[in-house]
Design a protein that fits this description.
This protein is mainly beta. Helices cover about 0% and strands about 55% of the residues. Strands 2, 4, 5, 6, 7, 8 and 12 form a 7-stranded antiparallel beta sheet that branches.
Length: about 290
């Protein structure tokens, strides 16, 4: 199987219609990062079958603000007829605030998370292999729409990289940039680390520690580490493949492992264009990198 990662849409003009290259399949995920405009009345994100105005809509995700607290409507449209609305009565998208909407495709449903918290499963009403378009409209500003494929190449097809590994990030980082890392955790791993470096330190240090069963994130500036951010739970498993994507947003990084958002880390080093190197080391084998 050939591995392919669609590049993100960066700062698209709203209303926006974009192609989901290769369509949807189980394990694929889509992340929309943006900000609700002040005074918004509603916006929506649609996953649909083509770009025609009358296209079937597999998922209609529609935050609305015509009540004091706000709520979310989800639905589908087939043969020009909408189904029965499902509503989430939670204020998950405050006006003027930033958000990350993550949609993971499973065999049964779309798993929908907002800012790292799972909020609902929306079951399929239209076959996922018919879905090839994403539409965003309404009173919202979008920073990036990024994609993560479920496909991981077989071990026989994987490239081999010497460790520790370092490569140049041409042009530095910018919002909308994705860094994709594939590897295999060593069977008796203690820890490994992924660093986004600049000339005087490490902008983002990502450090899974198996002995403590947690991940540590930090920043190194002029030889001094900042305060650690520790997140419990381990998204990696000894002896198993993984696919990690770091998405650079205007104010933070999002980290995805095997289709799930697992960390958000606010920028402490904000000159993103000066971040010019990716470094990977520790108890893992590196099998694929895309910067």
């Amino acid at each position: 199987m050939t591995y392919y990662q669609q590049q993100p849409f960066s700062s698209p003009q709203i209303p926006f219609t974009g192609s989901i290259q290769g369509g949807l399949q189980e394990g694929k995920s889509i992340t929309v990062s943006g900000r609700v405009l002040p005074g918004a009345n509603r916006f929506h994100v649609n996953l649909q079958c083509g770009s025609r105005p009358d296209a079937d809509i597999a998922l209609h995700f529609n935050p609305r603000y015509d009540s004091k607290t706000g709520y979310i409507v989800t639905n589908f449209r087939k043969n020009s007829h909408y189904g029965t609305e499902e509503r989430i009565h939670q204020a998950l998208f405050p006006m003027g605030n930033h958000f990350n909407l993550h949609i993971l495709v499973t065999s049964y449903s779309y798993k929908i998370s907002v800012n790292g918290n799972h909020v609902m499963d929306f079951k399929h009403h239209i076959p996922i292999n018919m879905v090839d378009t994403i539409v965003v409209d309404g009173m919202v500003e979008v920073y990036t729409i990024s994609f993560q494929d479920a496909a991981v190449p077989s071990v026989a097809a994987q490239a081999s990289y010497s460790m520790p590994y370092i490569t140049t990030i041409l042009g530095g980082l910018q919002p909308g940039k994705n860094i994709s890392i594939q590897g295999i955790v060593n069977p008796h791993a203690s820890r490994f680390q992924i660093n986004l470096r600049h000339s005087s330190g490490i902008a983002f240090h990502y450090n899974p520690r198996f002995g403590e069963n947690l991940v540590v994130c930090n920043t190194l500036t002029n030889g001094q580490w900042g305060s650690e951010e520790r997140s419990g739970g381990m998204p990696f498993h000894m002896g198993q493949n993984f696919h990690l994507i770091i998405t650079c947003n205007p104010h933070h990084y999002n980290v995805f492992v095997n289709g799930n958002q697992v960390q958000t880390y606010n920028h402490r080093f904000t000159n993103l264009w000066e971040i010019n190197a990716l470094e990977v080391s520790g108890d893992m084998s590196l099998t694929g990198v895309n910067v």
